[in-house]
Amino acid sequence: MSRDPAAIPKLTSDIRRSVVCLIPGLVLVVVLGPVIFAEPIEDSLVSAVGAGMLGWSCFAAIYCALTVWAFRGLRGERFRRSLIEAESTEPRAVRRILRVPGARTMLTGGDGPSWAVQVALVALAAALLLSVNSQVRSDPALLLVGVATVVTSWFTVLVSYALHYARAQTRDAGLRFPGEEPDGLADYLYFATSVSTTFATSDITVETARMRRLVTGHGLLAFAFNTVIVAIVVAILVGTLI
Fold first, then answer.
1. Which of 143, 108, 157, 111 minimizes the C-alpha distance to 232?
2. What does DSSP assign to residue 205?
3. Is residue 1 part of a domain?
4. Number of structural domains the chain divides into
5. Which among 194, 171, 187 is positioned nearest to 74, based on CA atoms?
6. What is the rounded CA–CA span in Å between residue 220 and residue 115?
7. C-alpha of 146 from chain center
8. In this structure, is the dihedral angle defined by the CA atoms of residues 242, 235, 226 and 229, taken in order, positive or negative?
9. Rounded to an integer, what distance in angstroms lies between the CA atom of residue 13 and that of residue 97?
10. Residue 225 burial class via C-beta count within 10 angstroms: exposed 0-12, middle 13-18, buried 19 and up
11. What's the CA gap between 116 and 227, in Å, rounded?
């Protein structure tokens, strides 16, 4: 059977991508976690947290790569349809679950504000664990996993907000791009990268109050992420290596 060129790719669904990414993350936690974080770590809680961070780092890295891959080649109207209609391709049971309060926040990776805040909290917890626990700082595996958690979380915030900007623009507009109109995910990744790295909107104009609130929240989160979390990790690395 030939594939419909206008069909929405299944992996544009946030839930499907999250489930696909969750599987290798759980495998790492269950299979490799006890091996990597067994000895000489004496604190079982630290070992469990290390295994959890390993799984999260795997999940976040695959999620970012899979999101970019899922939307590759989608342009114009097909890209906009995939942003709005992907959820309608889910089984009816899944759509019922999404109506439960809080379920969408926990399951849907593309919901920028809620999902990105959760990601930032995970990274903050990892950074705090690195800073206060001497076992973590002295164990190369834990130190590496902690840094990987912060780095992959930063990219997940960026990708989540890029998707959220794209959905908000598709539904209600609010951003004005110079020259050609945005045509795919790359345009929104460009915008999200500008906000995450410079706390500015670059050459893109924000035109609505709703979009200004969204950009403000992203900028504040990025500022906290960059100045607090990254600063903690850099200080720990410098202190460990010297």
1. 143
2. E
3. no
4. 1
5. 187
6. 15
7. 16
8. positive
9. 15
10. buried
11. 16
Residue 3 lies in a domain: no
Helices and strands counted in the chain (H then E): 12, 2
The answer to whether the beta carbons of residues 189 and 85 sit under 8 Å apart is: no
Q: Give the C-alpha distances (Å, rounded to integers) separating 76 from 54, 67, 79, 87.
A: 37, 17, 5, 19
CA pair distance 100, 108, nearest whole angstrom: 13
Token output for 204: 């893109």
Is 130 among the domain residues? Answer: yes
Do the beta carbons of residue 189 and residue 138 sit within 8 Å? no
What is the chain's pLDDT, residue by residue, as a tens digit (242 residues)? 445 556 777 888 888 888 888 888 888 877 776 666 555 545 566 677 778 888 888 889 999 999 999 998 888 888 888 888 776 666 666 666 666 666 665 555 556 677 777 888 888 787 777 777 776 677 777 778 888 888 898 999 999 999 999 989 988 888 998 888 888 899 999 999 999 998 787 889 899 999 999 999 999 988 888 887 777 777 777 766 55
**CA distance linking residue 236 with residue 127, whole number of Å:** 9
Q: Which amino acid is at 240?
A: T
- 3-state SS assignment for residue 175: strand
Residue ranges making up the domain that contains 234: 10-241
The reported pTM is: 0.84
Determine, yes or no, domain membership for 127: yes
First and final C-alpha spacing in the chain: 62
**Distance from C-alpha of 56 to C-alpha of 129, rounded to nearest angstrom:** 15
